[in-house]
Amino acid sequence: MNYNQSTESPSLLSINAGIRWNATERWSIEAGGEIYDGSGSDRSGKTLLSPFVIGRLEIDKDRQLSVWFKPEMSLSTYGEVTKLNPYIFREFTLKPESAPIKIGGGFWFNGEILSLEINGEFSKISDKSILISEDSQIKLQYVDAIQVIARIYGTFTPQKNMRLTFSGIIQPTYEEGNSLQLPMIPLIKSGVRGELLLNIPLRIWTSVEYWSKQNIDLVSEKDIGARFLLDVGASTQFIPRTILSAEIRNLLDDRYEWWNNYIAPGISFRLKAKINFL
Fold first, then answer.
1. CA 125 distance to own-chain centroid
2. CA pair distance 250, 230, nearest whole angstrom
3. Is 78 helix (H, G, I), strand (E, B) or coil?
4. What residues form DSSP beta bridges with 132?
5. CA 100 to CA 118: how far, in whole Å?
6. What is the pLDDT of residues 12-40, one digit of tens each?
7. What pLDDT, on the 0 to 100 scale, is given for residue 116?
8. Rounded CA gap, 151 and 106, in Å?
9. Domain extents for the chain?
10. Quick check: 137 and 260 in contact, CB under 8 A?
11. How many helices and strands, by DSSP H and E, does the chain display?
12. N or C: which end of the chain has fewer CB within 10 A?
């Protein structure tokens, strides 16, 4: 990339050490320390040195609780950023994202019919990367932020030939000292997918996805609306060593905004054949 200022390749190095103590047959504690050293493409640098603690309680073979305090630092690559949004203004700076405070907990359950995982985290983040709409361009920017995330994942299998998978996330994310949701981070994301295996070699499925509205700038002057997408599909293996599949995406032909002023494709059809020669 050809920048108008001096740049260098961003980097991130981490070293950690810890111990695990099985306090009882059901309780275990992992504790230690970790050091991160990162630099941005603008030659900025930061270091994070912190302890971490992870506690796990195995209630029984099907249920487990966990809590943790685990600060971290992460760094996105150029490819990851441009894959997230191919329309981004390409002269952007990459910086390590540091979370010196990150506290969370979770519950895991695995039953014959229902499998479920629920977890949540509170993070205080330095240099959180966000996408904003500015001067008719989509740009990468950094802010200090507070984020609270609650997630749920699950699978419901009432019969061997039926399966329902679901997920949801609530993620209030604010710039420090502000109460507006940060741009391009939907407050709510959820999805459900149902699959049915028929007596003939045919699997059919349908899925629903919902995203709440998203702000496009830091002052919440404009947003892009919520999206509700319905997909359907089917696959079969009636030909030996071959999987044939068909899919209809965005069945309701919802012309929602993918990013500001960028309209997502409407209804689309896909056919796929996968052949195993081995």
1. 16
2. 5
3. helix
4. 139
5. 23
6. 999 999 999 998 989 999 999 999 999 99
7. 97
8. 9
9. 1-110, 151-278
10. no
11. 1, 19
12. C
Say if residues 38 and 50 touch (Cβ distance below 8 Å): no
Matching residue, tokens 């949540």? 120
Compare 151 and 4 and report the one with higher pLDDT.
151
E-strand ranges in 22-96 read 27-39, 45-60, 63-69, 72-74
Whole-number Å distance between alpha carbons of 9 and 32: 30
pTM reported for the whole predicted model: 0.87
68-122 confidence digits (pLDDT tens): 999 999 999 999 998 888 888 888 899 999 999 999 999 999 999 999 999 999 9
CA atoms within 13 A on the CB side of 5: 6
Pairing of the two strands 227-236 and 223-224: unpaired
- Any idea which residue has 């966000």 for tokens? 130
The two tokens of residue 85 are 């949004």
Dist CA 200 CA 236 (whole Å)? 9
Q: What's the Cα-to-Cα distance from 178 to each of 143, 172, 209, rounded to whole Å?
A: 11, 12, 29
CA distances from 63 to 26, 109, 114, 159 (A): 11, 5, 12, 22
User: H or E element: which one contains 79?
Assistant: helix 78-84
CB atoms within 10 A of CB 179: 8
Q: Look at residue 143 and give its three-state secondary structure.
A: strand
3-state helix, strand, coil in the chain (%, to 5): 5, 65, 35
Read off the tokens for 187. 């407050």
Coil, strand or helix at 83:
helix
Question: Within its chain, how far is the Cα of 48 from the centroid?
Answer: 23
Longest dimension (CA), the chain: 64
The DSSP call for residue 88 is B
Place of tokens 């329902």: 164
| Residue among 150, 115, 142, 130 at smallest CA distance from 40 | 142
d(C-alpha 166, C-alpha 195), whole Å:
12
